[in-house]
Amino acid sequence: MTIERRMQALLAVVEEDRRKQVDAILREAKARVAAQLGDAHRAARERMRAAFADEGRQRAERVHAAQANLQTQRRLNAQQRAAALLGLAGRRLPEALAARWRAPETRRAWTSRVVAQAKAALPACRWRIDHAPDWPAAERDALGAQLARECAAAPELRADVTIDAGLRITGDGTVVDGTKDGLVRDRAENGARLLAYLDARIEA
Asked: What is the second-level CATH architecture of the domain 103-203?
């Protein structure tokens, strides 16, 4: 074999070795690039998921805060509405009670209710009944006769010029105040009853 052929064979071996090394380097580089790209994509996906999760949490917090604020506003509106209604009722109640006392049917229901409360609170039935001067004699006398039959003694009936509607029953140191002024004074109970009545009407 000539020197030239030996050189060509040697060059061919060197070239083949170089090509294999380059191929190996390229494969390794491609593998590293692919791995880095994969890591970068995974990291990007994780960042995106974290961003979405954070946005979801923030959105949920905003919704929760808005709902809490809405509930607070509803409670405040309900309280303001109740206060306005109670204020209006407090102004109208005295005249409404006076009108009920002037009407025979509601006046009889009024006196019957007060007497029923007195019977529950004052079982001895030794009563003094102070009443509005305009209580018709027929109704007054009928109640006195009824109580005389039911009790050991007839009640003492007295007109009281300070009472403009209703009656007040006293016995054994206890008072059942069914006068207009006594009913108006009990603002807490009146307010609670009015709100319960309105709530029942709204739910119906």
From this structure: 2-Layer Sandwich (3.30)
Residue 91's Cβ-count burial label (10 Å; 0-12, 13-18, 19+) is: exposed
The DSSP 8-state label assigned to residue 186 in this structure reads -
What does the alpha-carbon distance between residue 69 and residue 174 come to, in Å, rounded to a whole number?
A: 49
pLDDT in tens, 97-134: 888 999 999 999 999 998 888 888 877 678 899 999 99
Backbone phi, psi, residue 175, to 5°: -120, 130
Domain borders along the chain are 1-92, 103-203
pTM equals 0.54
CA 22 to chain CA centroid, Å, is: 78
d(CA 161, CA 132): 7
CA nearest to 160, candidates 131, 129, 128: 131
State pLDDT tens for residues 165-177: 999 989 888 888 8
- Cβ partners under 8 Å of residue 132, min gap 6: 101, 159, 160, 163, 164, 165, 166, 167, 179
